[in-house]
Amino acid sequence: MESTPRIPDYAYAGNQSLYRIEIPDGTKAIGKHAFYNCRHLETILLPHGGIEIEDGAFKNCQRVSHIILRQGEGDCACLKDILYDMNQEIQVTVFYGGDDRAVLLFPHYEYEYIANEPARIFSEIGYGAGYLYQQCFFDSRIDYPRYDSLWKNACVSEEIPVLARILSLRLRFPHQLSDASFSMYFDYFREHAEEFLTFFMKEEDIDSLRFFLEKMPVDTDLLTLAGQIAASLESPKLISYVLDVKRQRIGAEKKGAGKFKL
Predict the structure, then answer these.
(1) Listed residue (28, 44, 151) closest to 93, CA to CA
(2) Contact criterion met (CB below 8 Å) for 170 and 148
(3) Backbone phi, then psi, for 200, in 5-degree steps?
(4) Integer distance in angstroms from the first to the last C-alpha of the chain?
(5) N or C: which end of the chain has fewer CB within 10 A?
(6) What is the CB neighbour count within 10 angstroms for residue 242?
(7) How far is residue 244's CA from residue 259's CA, in Å, rounded to a whole number?
(8) pLDDT at residue 233 is higher than 50
(9) Rounded to an integer, what distance in angstroms lies between the CA atom of residue 131 and that of residue 154?
(10) CB atoms near residue 22 (< 10 Å)
(11) What angle do CA 11, 17, 18 make, to 5 degrees?
């Protein structure tokens, strides 16, 4: 994609060969319906969040599942504007320099238009936690405390697969995650450990398994549960993995404890 201060109106509208786009540095605006109806578009990379998103720039791009913001400091208004035109589940990655980044899941939601006949206007009504998550912006920035405060809403309206992705991403990439919110997510994981571990194993989500089984404090009961789930799934790969983790972690803990034994 050529570098230009403004991507013209309808520049790529209806282009079915676009799967991934990287907006060039120096872009200041994306014109009206520039990527309208790009039905195979999956990933959008943005250099920063201060790009002006004009009306319907990404409307009807229903397969977009990843948005990556290479520089998250400052204005993130364009992220809000892109999400506003979408209701599917989208994973957003925001880099803040070095190894610091946030990875957030914005869940799918449904909406409908309710007619107000006397006033001759239509109101958009959203259903599901995703509609609330899209409101997690304040003064053109991502409002992380607001995002975390919606966890209780998500627990009511979403199933384990969505909750697992929200929880795992937030804990693994804890940008502006308070101690209280960390405990909130982790306590919920412990209360529903069997469901979450089963989901991670079925999805072969090794990154999440490594976080909960390897990086968190040693928990013998959790490791035993993981082994039982792996066995029930009849997965030699997962069984071997859990046994290795259990052997290394419990063995290391026993050796560590031995050093201080009187």
Answers:
(1) 44
(2) yes
(3) -60, -40
(4) 68
(5) C
(6) 24
(7) 23
(8) yes
(9) 11
(10) 13
(11) 60
Token reading at 35 = 């990527």
Going by the DSSP 8-state scheme, the letter that residue 198 receives in this structure is H
CA distances (Å), origin 121, targets 28, 45, 118, 126: 33, 36, 8, 17
Phi and psi of 20, rounded to 5°? Answer: -150, 130
Q: Can you give the pLDDT at residue 122?
A: 56
CA distance 192 to 14: 44
Q: What are phi and psi of 37, to 5 degrees?
A: 65, 25
Q: What is the pLDDT of residues 112-145, one digit of tens each?
A: 656 666 666 655 565 678 999 999 999 889 999 9
Which of 4-8, 43-47, 64-68 shows the lowest mean pLDDT across its residues? 4-8
Residues 6+ apart with CB under 8 A from 142: 72, 76, 79, 94, 102, 104, 136
Please state, for a pLDDT cut of 90, what percent of the chain lies above it.
80
Of 120 and 38, which is predicted with more confidence? 38
Non-local CB neighbours of 172 within 8 Å, separated by 6+ positions: 103, 207, 208, 211
Indicate the SS3 state at residue 145: helix
CA–chain centroid gap for 35, Å, is 23
**What's the rounded Cα separation, in Å, for the pair 257 and 178?**
31
Q: Is the pTM of this model over 0.90?
A: no
The answer to whether 77 and 54 have CB atoms below 8 angstroms apart is no
Alpha-carbon radius of gyration of the chain: 22
Reported confidence tier of residue 256, pLDDT bands at 50, 70, 90: low
Confidence grade of residue 3 (pLDDT, cut at 50, 70, 90): low
